[in-house]
Amino acid sequence: MSHFFAFLSRMKFIQRWGLMRNTMPENIQEHSLQVAMIAHGLAAIRNTYFKGEIDAAKVAVLGMYHEIAEVFTGDLPTPVKYFNPQIKDIYKDIENMAQKNLYNMLPDELKNTYSNLLIRKDEDTELWRIVKAADKISAYLKCVEELKAGNQEFSVALKMIRQELDASNLPEVKYFMEIFAPSFSLSVDELNY
């Protein structure tokens, strides 16, 4: 018997943005799906417009799995996670242990299939850069949606995340932010036109 998928199903219970008032709560399962879709889109943009050769399907799957350690750790708020280098390093070690714990829950015959999703490999560094960018875009879009709902709690986070995205050296991020991100501030009626 393996508890692997039972643990993954608990992603829906891990709430994000724990230090902030949310008009619409977001769990890591919802977030991971959005990150996967954005990461896939970023890979497609790079391949289409910037002569990339990124495996968009693999990037999407990495996005689906990028938060799985949080079924053990919970979502540590960013100000805590990055409070100082020691906390950041310790938390990274805890995440790595959580990922290895999940990996060890798998039947031996499936471990090879899931190893690159649970244990980061050097050859996937560029794919993980895209997932990280998608994660930042997802956070930015959450801020946009909260501000659209009148929640000023996210105004500083929006500015800080936008600065990080504007400083990105990934051309697909700039493209996404210019072409796709503005629509998230529109109402459904405005989207229909």
TrEMBL record:
> CDD domains attached here?
HDc
Q: Which residues does the UniProt record annotate as the domain HD?
A: 28-140
EC number(s) given by UniProt: 3.1.3.89
Which major enzyme category is it? Answer: hydrolase
Q: Which reaction(s) does its UniProt entry say it catalyses?
A: a 2'-deoxyribonucleoside 5'-phosphate + H2O = a 2'-deoxyribonucleoside + phosphate
Matching entries from Pfam families are given as:
YfbR-like
Q: Which Gene3D superfamilies does the protein's record reference?
A: Hypothetical protein af1432 (1.10.3210.10)
Q: Which GO terms describe its cellular component?
A: cytoplasm
Q: Which UniProt keywords apply?
A: Cytoplasm, Hydrolase, Metal-binding, Nucleotide-binding
A GO molecular function term, named singly, is: metal ion binding
What cofactors does this protein use?
Co(2+); Mn(2+)
What InterPro entries does this protein's entry cite? HD/PDEase_dom, HD_domain, YfbR, YfbR/HDDC2
**How does it associate, per the subunit comment?**
Homodimer.
| Protein name in the entry | 5'-deoxynucleotidase
Q: Which organism is it from?
A: Methylomusa anaerophila
